[in-house]
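In the laboratory, one determines a bound structure by crystallizing the protein with its ligand and collecting diffraction data. In a computational setting the workflow is compressed into a single prediction: the sequence and the ligand go in, and a structural description comes out. We illustrate the idea with pyridoxal-5'-phosphate.
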Amino acid sequence: MQNPKQQFTEHLAWTSDNPIGLEVDQAVGSYIYLKDGRRIIDLISGIAVSSLGHRHPRVIEAIKRQVDKHLHVMVYGEFVQGSQARYAAALAKALPDGLDSVYFTMTGTEANEGALKLAKKATGRTRMMSFENSYHGDSHGSLSVTGRQVYREPFLPLLPDVGFLPFNDIEALAAIDESVACVITEPIQGEGGIIVPSVAWHQALRKRCSEVGALLIYDEIQTGFGRTGSMFACEQFGVVPDIITLAKAMGGGMPLGAFVSSHAIMATLRDNPPLSHVTTFGGHPVSCAAALATLEVLTNEQLPARALQIEAQIRETLVHPSIREIRGRGAMLGLDLRDANLTEKVTKFCLENGVLLGWTLHSNSLIRVAPPLNIEEDVLNMALRVILMALKQHA
Ligand code: PLP
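The predicted complex, in structure-token form:
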């Protein structure tokens, strides 16, 4: 009989030639416990998912309660399922006014797929615009609006009629015209290297889209649910998009995503033909129960504000000549190292010494830090000391 490591090697499809391959036993709070007895501080939260830490008791309790009632009963949108309805109402309340009709999905890329289809249906236009270096997911539609050629190239041809503009460039927005159905952007680019654009750019983008009747889609799959210091990042830029897409931290560790818009825009998906966008598992009742508990904890414990304290603690502590810049906002930060060769050495040293750091898909000089929003101050401090030690050893 093979052990799990051998089974992983032989039977699980790999996404790279050298997966980290840590063998997980348990995960609780800010820690992941490994089969070999080691305990690791999680500074990446499953890539911005475990914002309440692992297995938050309120989330676990909500999951157990729902499991005792029902699991899947019907494809999305047909039955009234309490946990789904309660969460949709709470989410609409937490979102800016006008974003009040929720379409649930399972994942982020599906949320973006739905948003792109919705924009085409609502406007009757086909052209879609996005930004260089953006990341919106790996299914065909989301990849079509992802602004990195190296990831698109092997899968061409993708969707036609897609244009890319430079990010954070106000003048370039003039290319958005009356032929455009939608413009999709992350409020802060994540995988592209943690890039925060200016408030002026965000507002110019909103204005341009309104002028030409293009729908503005904010992909808050990574920035949402308090990670950048407000419940949704769009609040910090004074912009309300026409459609917002969500996933990752939404389900408190359970798979859940959504695209959310106004009733008027969302209603265009209902007919001509009816059922023109359906999903079997979108808004799974157990995920929705977990998501409602997650939203309540985020709100009651004021975790968006806690993200800003985490940012301050990291910026104060991580001062080292090898760090060129700390980019990002709240608990979504990137340490830009002066020497790209250091990235691997530092992350390896940290892992050997009990700290899990992240990487971005598109940059090799960036170390990503995205801890749980409720990480204890002393635990974070311990982890930051290890990063400093790594820099001292290898710089
Ligand atoms: N959009 C953004 C901004 C993301 O960061 C990601 C994932 O990292 C996605 C979309 C895709 O989400 P998923 O992996 O759930 O499909």
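Residues 4-55+302-394 form a domain with the Aspartate Aminotransferase, domain 1 fold (CATH 3.90.1150.10). Keep in mind that any predicted model is a hypothesis to be tested, not a measurement.
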